[in-house]
Amino acid sequence: MTRIILWDLDNTLLDPRPPERLAIRKCFKDLDLGECTDEMLDAYPAINNKWWTMCEKGEKTKDEILVGRFQEFLSVFGRPVDKAPEFLADYMDSLGDNIFPIPGALDTLRFLKGKVKQYILTNGVWASQRKKLCNSGVIDIADGVFVSEDVGFEKPEKEIYDKVLDIIGCTDRSEILMVGDSLTTDIQGANNAGIPCCWFNPMHKEKPSDLRIDYEIDEISKVLSIINLQQENMN
Length: 235
Ligand SMILES: [Mg+2]
Description:
Oligomer: single chain
Bound molecules: magnesium ion
Largest sheet: 6 strands, parallel
Shape: elongated
Low-confidence stretches: none
CATH architecture of the largest domain: 3-Layer(aba) Sandwich
Distance between the termini: 12 Å
Number of helices: 11
Radius of gyration: 18 Å
Structural class: alpha/beta
Mean pLDDT: 95
Number of domains: 2
């Protein structure tokens, strides 16, 4: 039975897209880079994803990605590439200024407070995640936060789970539920670590056959049904 939930943050509890767009617009203004059009903003996620995929494959380090995606972005739109480090610093600082929760996510978190232990497990850097966690109130609701940069490993590495479970003093992995939107990090990671997982799949993407997916939900509040169901089965 689930006593501990490990929540992914981006695209599970918080929608990162609107804050990304607002932050990029702000950087253009702050650094005097001219007009930032919707077309440019629309192009950014594909560039960003491309770089993060290189990170997941181990082809680039995180530092290379953080600045590299903006070098490419600025270059594609004919802006000075040497502004990328400054752009990155401003972007990281602005990312948490605007919070767009995934519908129902924060209510679910609040409802479960005290009923199960809840920890945030996010791949990322403190510089960008801290403000998001604070301004959304997630940091106050959760029992703890683990950012991969601090833990020293990334999802889907088994070691990040081993280390986190050790810190929170959990010896029975069946009591955990990893909830996240990403097959390559959250679900693959839970598979690697041998812990139950719940795939948040709001777009109803096709379920892969090569991964163990114990639960699938299209709304975050449906985590409550999973926990209720487990309790009913126990009785
Ligand atoms: Mg995510």
